Amino acid sequence: GSFDEECDYLFKAVLIGDSAVGKSNLLSRFARDEFCLESKPTIGVEFAYRNIRIGDKLIKAQIWDTAGQERFRAITSSYYRGAMGALLVYDTTRRSTFESLRKWLRELREFGSREMVVVLVGNKSDLTHSREVSLEDGQSLAQLEDLSFMETSAKENVNVEDAFLQMINKIYDLT
Ligand code: GDP
């Protein structure tokens, strides 16, 4: 039998954040354990699945990714529809992507469901020499907005699993 028949829950979650912060690579790490050095702008929407076991329950996590939100405003509402969680990603080496979070949070509140689980992710933590956003800046924003927070490296595979699993566990706790 396929997993679909046996799976207890299907959780939809979305990746959001500025272009080139590493959303696609975080997803491919989580779903396929791959990292790709070339940046290929996502056209429209892609998604990937990963099956997770929590206790005796089987959860199918469906994670949506798009790099084209700015260019594809029309898809925004379908992108968020039914999403129970979001990874809100910025690039620790580009301050502008951190400043954009205000805009992303506004969009989340407009299109996302009220009880959506949001994990703030500062990616590219491996690039210590070009850091423009401190760990403390990420922590303070997370505290202010009441979000979970983690710094990750999709490249070095640091905290990627943790960030996704934290989100999925929190969604599970709400069901
Ligand atoms: P997206 O547009 O947000 O989906 O970003 P991508 O996943 O396409 O990544 C944009 C660029 O950043 C690519 O060149 C990636 O190889 C690179 N990148 C992504 N994550 C990391 C990371 O954790 N560390 C480093 N050093 N580079 C990364």
TrEMBL record:
Q: Does the keyword Membrane apply?
A: yes
**Gene Ontology cellular-component terms listed:** plasma membrane
Top-level taxon: Eukaryota
Tell me the membrane topology, using the record's own terms.
Answer: Lipid-anchor
Q: Which UniProt keywords apply?
A: GTP-binding, Lipoprotein, Membrane, Nucleotide-binding, Prenylation
Q: Where is the signal peptide?
A: none
Task: Give an example GO molecular function.
Answer: GTP binding
* Location of this chain's protein in the cell: Cell membrane
Give yes or no: UniProt keyword Membrane. yes
Q: Can you tell me which family this protein belongs to? A: Belongs to the small GTPase superfamily. Rab family.
Name under which the protein is recorded: Ras-related protein Rab-11A
Biological source species: Salvia splendens (Scarlet sage)
Q: Which residues of the full protein are shown?
A: 4 to 178 of 224
